[in-house]
Design a protein that fits this description.
Shape: globular
Structural class: alpha+beta
Distance between the termini: 16 Å
CATH class of the largest domain: Alpha Beta
Radius of gyration: 20 Å
Bound molecules: adenosine-5'-triphosphate, magnesium ion
CATH architecture of the largest domain: 2-Layer Sandwich
CATH superfamily of the largest domain: ATP-grasp fold, B domain
Oligomer: single chain
Length: 289
């Protein structure tokens, strides 16, 4: 058996108990033994990462016996700390770092010729100067928001000021609003291969997030769309991610990479056992090295 940590934040654990249970019970079928640990119980002593005793509750195994981790906490620093100890982390710290910072993601994806919405990173104190260069309507985002929170539509300077007040942090992302959007497509990618795609549409809000009322349906990628997806996959060396696009009448516009990708919509429209597929992929990867 290969021992590994499954890392969550306490808040996300509460929301994902069923999914986590699937991981913990199915791991054994693939020669893996998983232990749930919380990111809140992770500290650094000098530059070494340690999990406090409480999170290693039953003492089944400690960090010294751990050879891999599935990090669903969105915390790249934990992954980097584990990698320093020689532990293979799914996804790697590099992917977690890029995917959880919308500006880093934008810069990263701009290396390819994939279509993106024009995006600016603006310092809060410079907002009044920068605004002259921006055409309304725009979308205003925090760098690290999730679930559509911290994503605001601004039709005027006044809206922008209000949005900025709601967003914490010094830097703010401003993006051209895709007004004729026909919905979002999330492409699930495991080990560089497309698993499936899901379309999300929300009739009541410009944000297609399921948590805000978006509805998911199965989606088949056209040949052209597959080429766009392949451009992003080629840049990434990711284990399991979602690649999100917004569709307008010209096709796909890249939106973001989801590191701890939510699978509710995948389960709701397809008959896949995603957890078993991921565990099998992880076991194969660990055997390969
Ligand atoms: N530039 C844009 N133009 C039009 N709609 C947009 C734009 N940016 C985002 N949206 C809509 O708002 C939604 C939320 O935005 P985004 O995905 O950037 O935020 P999020 O909070 O990170 O969501 P997630 O939970 O997927 O990480 C998108 O799924 C899309 O439907
Ligand atoms: Mg999103």
């Amino acid at each position: 058996m290969l021992n590994g940590f499954l890392i969550y934040s306490i808040k996300d654990y509460e929301k994902n108990k069923w999914f986590i249970g699937e991981f913990l019970t199915k791991a054994n079928h693939f020669g893996l033994c998983l232990k749930l640990v919380f990111k809140e119980n992770c500290n650094y002593v000098d530059d070494t990462l340690v999990f406090e005793e409480e999170s290693l509750d039953s003492g089944v195994f400690s960090i010294d016996d751990c050879c891999f981790a599935i990090n669903r906490s969105r915390d790249a620093r934990i992954s980097a700390g584990l990698e320093q100890l020689g532990i293979r982390v799914f996804n790697t710290s590099r992917i977690t770092e890029i995917a959880n910072d919308k500006w880093k993601t934008y810069e990263f994806v701009k290396r390819s010729d994939v279509r993106t919405a024009n995006t600016w990173l603006i310092k809060r104190e410079n907002i009044s100067h920068s605004i002259e260069k921006v055409d309304f309507p725009i979308v205003v985002k925090s760098l690290d928001g999730h679930g559509g929170h911290d994503v605001y539509l601004a039709n005027s300077e006044k809206d922008l000021v209000i949005a900025c007040e709601k967003i914490a942090g010094r830097e703010i992302l401003v993006q051209q609003f895709i007004a004729d959007a026909l919905g979002d497509v999330r492409v699930y990618v495991m080990g560089g291969r497309v698993l499936a795609a899901v379309k999300r549409v929300n009739d009541d809000d410009f944000r297609a997030n399921i948590s805000l009322g978006g509805k998911a349906t199965a989606y088949e990628l056209s040949d052209g769309e597959q080429l766009e997806v392949a451009k992003v996959i080629k840049l990434l060396d990711a284990d399991f991610v979602g690649i999100d696009f917004i569709i307008d009448d010209e096709g796909f516009v890249f939106n973001e990479i989801e590191d701890a990708v939510g699978t509710r919509s995948l389960y709701s429209v397809y008959d896949y056992d995603v957890v078993s597929m991921y565990l099998e992929y992880i076991a194969d990867e660990l055997r390969r090295v």
